[in-house]
Amino acid sequence: MTDTGKLLEEMNHRSREVFRRVVESYLTKGDPVGSRTLTREMSEKVSAATIRNVMQDLEYLGLLGSPHVSAGRIPTELGLRMFVDGLLEVGDPTSEDRDAIDAEITGSDSSVTSILDRVGAALSGVTRGASLVLAPKHEAPVRHIEFVSLAPDRALVVLVFNDGHVENRVFNPPAGQTASSFREAANFLNSIVAGHTLSELGRVIAAEIGKRRQELNDLARDLVENGTVIWENEGTETERLIVRGRSNLLAGSAEEAELERIRTLFDDLERKRDIADFLNLTQDGEGVRIFIGSENKLFSLSGSSLVVSPYMNADRKIIGAIGVIGPTRLNYGRIVPIVDYTAQLLGRVIADRGQ
């Protein structure tokens, strides 16, 4: 049992109700909750002084905090975690929310890229947060690789897959590359890529470099050994992380401190357009996961929450992830089932397309 689970078990009925009402009010309105307000809402008739004592006890436990002197209380990150783990009631998405997601997935354009983009836009619209969709890597075996120099510090790699799919990826090569080293690196890679997907190539390259180092000059070897920057899709114009609905995070945020936190989040999203760690958040198993505030190591912003779920292909393999990010006072009870529904629906659509 988690620490928050033990705390919840040890709380009496009155403390639990005070805590629950403070959190639910905060998630709905975003304002601190005072003792006088709670006296009108409690299931039993108690005085404001009694409620203040309970709130002080909850504050001592680290579950509630007071943003200003003489203000009411709001839940801390620990308090939100306890509420989400032990008191959150999650139902099914409403028919209206389902219809909004269904309409985008079943649109006329059936390409996966288009579907993912539309789903991201629909999810941000439905949840009023920013949506994050991590697209699947192209997992067909690679047939051919070619390098093209664009500038001293920029190059293009052309990846041709067995199924005819072609991707052009811009990257920063190791310093000093020449036309000869590009050609030599490409020839070496083409001798080993046959039958291997991009996700397998890193391991294959490492093994082959160890056995055949003498076949490459230093420049070509640097390019091959630093190939992980290519396989991880950094710098490509084909973004794997689709972000939609940034403007939703600005709605109703008038305080300068809050706006600064949102600007920090925007900076993070721009710097990490293709975030491998985003998918790693879901690798512990299927289903929705919730990261509250500082629990989320993906972004430097502490005042945000991320609700994320993986989606799977027909073989039940995790191939991508979808999530919603917003302030810690997200409506978790509504957003969790929406994210879960969208992830399952997206997985079925991609499985139907044999991806």
From TrEMBL:
UniProtKB keywords: Repressor, Stress response, Transcription, Transcription regulation
Source organism, top-level taxon: Bacteria
InterPro entries membership: GAF-like_dom_sf, HrcA, HrcA_C, WH-like_DNA-bd_sf, WH_DNA-bd_sf, WHTH_transcript_rep_HrcA_IDD
Molecular function per GO: DNA binding
Pfam families with a match to the protein in the record: HrcA (PF01628)
Heat-inducible transcription repressor HrcA C-terminal domain residues: 114-336
Gene3D superfamilies linked: 3.30.450.40, Heat-inducible transcription repressor hrca homolog, domain 3 (3.30.390.60), Winged helix-like DNA-binding domain superfamily/Winged helix DNA-binding domain (1.10.10.10)
Entry's Gene Ontology BP terms: negative regulation of DNA-templated transcription
Keyword Transcription regulation: yes
Family designation: Belongs to the HrcA family.
Family matches, as PANTHER family: HEAT-INDUCIBLE TRANSCRIPTION REPRESSOR HRCA
Function recorded in the entry: Negative regulator of class I heat shock genes (grpE-dnaK-dnaJ and groELS operons). Prevents heat-shock induction of these operons.
Protein name listed in UniProt: Heat-inducible transcription repressor HrcA
Organism of this sequence: Silicimonas algicola
Annotated gene: hrcA
